[in-house]
Task: structure prediction
Amino acid sequence: MRNVFLFIRRHFNFLFFLVLQIISLSFLFRFNKFHEAAFLNVSTEITGRINERYNNIEYYFQLKKTNESLVQENLRLRQQLKENFEGPDSMRRLIHDTVRADSHSVLKYVIMEAKVVSNTTSQQANYLTIHRGFAQGVRPNMGVTGPQGIVGSVVNVSKNFATVQSVLHYQFRVVAKLKHNNETGTIQWDGQGPLFVTMKNIPRSVKVEKGDTVLTTQISSLFPANLMIGTVAEIVPDNSSNFYTLKVRLATNFGTIEYVYVIDNLQYDEQKMLEDSTRKKIQ
Amino acid sequence: MSELLKNTIRFILFILVQVFILFKMPPLHRFVTPYLYYLFILWLPFNLSRMSITFIGFFFGLSLDYFTKTPGLHAAACTLIAYVRPFVIGLLISQEGADKNYVAPSIVSMGWAPYATYVLVLTLLHHSYLVLLEWMNFGSLVYFLGKVIASTAISLLLILLTELLFFRKQKFRTNTI
Result:
């Protein structure tokens, strides 16, 4: 027993160093799985406030670009208005039947706007911090999209701030489809710069061309269908398999992002519960 | 200004510069991540005990981690270099006794060549460990080597600039007074 104490006293510095290493590594590896270790809720609140101060200044330098992207988005939405479309037959008029829409369809997605207070693109694990937390109704596993295209998904929430796992994160995955033939594949980031992501599992029998639009699908429980992700920039045939790997140029410019929309899927819990209970039943 | 106050201000400044300037810059290449923040650990005074210096390293790294949302990544690397620091200093200035006559490691107190070696060794150690942790779930051997070398080069450049811009005057203290 005495020797044990002597050993500890003699190598106290080294043991202390080992303990700190173990603490930091356990933070690191548990965090990647659960996103809730290491007092992150408290710290998000504090770092969020500092980031907000900084963003208040930085925001003015981005105003022009932010404004432009919002105008572009408005333009796109206005283009889709019913009034813009006119049938060749002026005697008939298309009347939108609101009764049908009200009684048969259920509101599934609620959209909230949020200000981005912090954003990185230079790491391998990039996160954004947005100025909305559980007090404003944000919870983990909500999709986040920007004016131009998708941005990421919420992983952690404090009272007034939320952490968003960016598309530019090596663990981010989302199901996507090609617009012209609805062929689905998985989007993930390869870490090679903030402009491109890769799309995998597109069969080689499918016709793909450069410039094809890539959209979200309703299969992903994070996003509603048909949100913009990007356009195909390069087609890489994977010779060892029957699939293409597509290089997709992201629609979102992560360098200048200022406002995002948080998408609350109202049926997320129900869907998740059903899927989990099914998995349990099968086992 | 007392050493404690000076180092507290440095602590805050290094974190802010790293988070709001160096991490915000659009990356030149995916291998090039400009790290400067750990210079705080290299500039800590000589007379700290080994335990406290290890703990300061851990706490400093963890503070940065909370900004980048990667708890433990920078903390692990900083703890490592803070722990190794006294050994490297002991090797490099063993016979001059500069650690008694000066406050902190610098070009003036250690001499040009030993100080450069000291910075190079700890930078390499910090970057290798940091990239190794990142590499475990991401990337290939080319990624590992490329990123360590490119980031070390850019960090050394940044440290050189910082040393030239903020030249630290060091008084020679004797124990005869």
